[in-house]
Design a protein that fits this description.
Troponin, Troponin_I, Troponin_sf, 105 residues, 2 helices, mainly alpha, actin-binding, single chain, muscle protein
């Protein structure tokens, strides 16, 4: 049986043009999603975080406000650290269990 060479139904230049158009469309969609995420983030933060009113506060009131904010930041940082440590431990435990199991050989 003689081998028949398959010819492409689409030229190389047309294929390249279509590929570049697809990449341009994907980039456009990605940028639009990124803008939407940023807008959603801004809306969420505007909802959840009240604006900081510092006008008309005395020096002692400003210092108290700074202390309160610093304490809140410390609490959030501790929680974030705990979550990262726990997720890291879980990941290491899973890797250790997978390496230890007889099915991984």
């Amino acid at each position: 049986m003689p081998e028949v060479e398959r010819k492409s139904k689409i030229t190389a230049s047309r294929k390249l043009l279509l590929k570049s158009l697809m990449l341009a469309k994907a980039k456009e969609c990605w940028e639009q999603e990124h803008e939407e995420r940023e807008a959603e983030k801004a809306r969420y933060l505007a909802e959840r975080i009240p604006t900081l009113q510092t006008r008309g506060l005395s020096l002692s009131a400003l210092q108290d406000l700074c202390r309160d904010l610093h304490a809140k930041v410390e609490v959030v940082d501790e929680e974030r650290y705990d979550i990262e440590a726990m997720s890291g431990m879980e990941g290491r435990k899973k890797m250790f269990d997978a390496a230890k199991s007889p099915t991984s050989q």
